[in-house]
Amino acid sequence: MSITKVHARTVYDSRGNPTVEVEITTENGLFRAIVPSGASTGIHEAVELRDGNKSEWMGKGVTKAVSNVNSIIGPALIKSELCVTNQKGIDELMISLDGTSNKSRLGANAILGVSLCVARAAAAQKGITLYKYIAELADARQDPFVIPVPFFNVLNGGAHAGGSLAMQEFKIAPVGAQSFAEAMRMGSEVYHHLKILAKEQYGPSAGNVGDEGGVAPDIDTAEDALDMIVEAINICGYEGRVKVGIDSAPSVFYKDGKYDLNFKEPNSDPSHWLSPAQLAEYYHSLLKKYPIISLEDPYAEDDWSSWSAFLKTVNVQIIADDLTCTNKTRIARAIEEKCANTLLLKLNQIGTLTESIEAANQAFDAGWGVMISHRSGETEDPFIADLVVGLRCGQIKSGALSRSERLAKYNELLRIEEELGDDCIYAGHRFHDGNKL
User: Fold this and answer.
1) Which of 97, 135, 292, 405 has the smallest count of CB within 10 Å of its CB?
2) Do 90 and 156 share a domain, yes or no?
3) Is 216 helix (H, G, I), strand (E, B) or coil?
4) Active site (catalytic) residues
5) Where does substrate bind?
6) Of 127, 161, 180, which residue is a domain's last?
7) Residue at which a domain ends, from 127, 156, 190
8) Residue 343 and residue 321: Cα distance in Å, rounded?
9) Binding site feature residues
């Protein structure tokens, strides 16, 4: 069944910035997808096409991307008469229409919106759920399905919040839960106790939340953040059952080969900046003191040697995000140089569902884990909930248990777990090996 109509429009993400929504019509009806956007974006990501007209939307308009869907991609898809279930063929057609290595002509935000819409339409044509369709595309096992461990970003710093805290995300992971539903309850309880502690220690405004729903108190150091998180976990009685993860996002504070943990201070003293080896020592001190099971982006996106040196010294999950940008060439290099052991997969970093699936399988084939991720500028579209189940990744991060654009993904996972019943398992402590369960 081919596509009969393609239409894009401007809608708004969770930060109030314009983004692209795409609708596709087939004989089965109308299907819709909305594209997210990031705040701390890697320089190697596919291009999110923005208008750049400072007089409208502060330069963040997406009218060019919308027009590219309506005037170039849509007509080409309809003319091609490609069946909606030909995901790879449709994605390859759009990549060919763009003709660049980073989707800078048409925009990854234009191409991805169509790609995700096509998957929804194809699942409907086949009469199966979206996660089952994605599993078919990825040639992933479906017996049983794996429900992921949620890594809740409960405390925000870095580019996602005000205050002086350099590191961007402090996450909790209910690995000791017996189900996703229980993980949600545990996460909710810890999050609310953390909010209470933040207000008690830093004042009423400390309960205000950042872009991803986590509290954003005016904290100075990672130790201050981790002490408060561990206290909240212990208050709930979940010691040993709820672990911790960190996303440093250090590319924003990488300067002249060193790392400036005081980068938010306008007159930061260069003598206090850390060398890669000193930063490694700092990470090791945190790993010894706190129940940390996952470190994302410990080093900057092109500091390859520091990544590979650090991986040899730890036995926790090391996630590559800005380093790899869901890009198969960079993933291959990271695998070859032994820089990490887990891929963070973001759909809009690469721009099509087909390439995202290929990136996940590339990581799995190397023995890596894969974590599915939202973006800081999110929408109500829950596509990544189906993606993480379809790919058997075993882990997802979609912010805190706050803000509806974050809960849209978690609530969809609750529905999927309930629907599957005995035909699914919760990844739990084996979150890194979801594809092997």
Assistant:
1) 97
2) no
3) coil
4) 212, 346
5) 160, 169, 296, 321, 373-376, 397
6) 127
7) 127
8) 7
9) 160, 169, 247, 296, 321, 373-376, 397
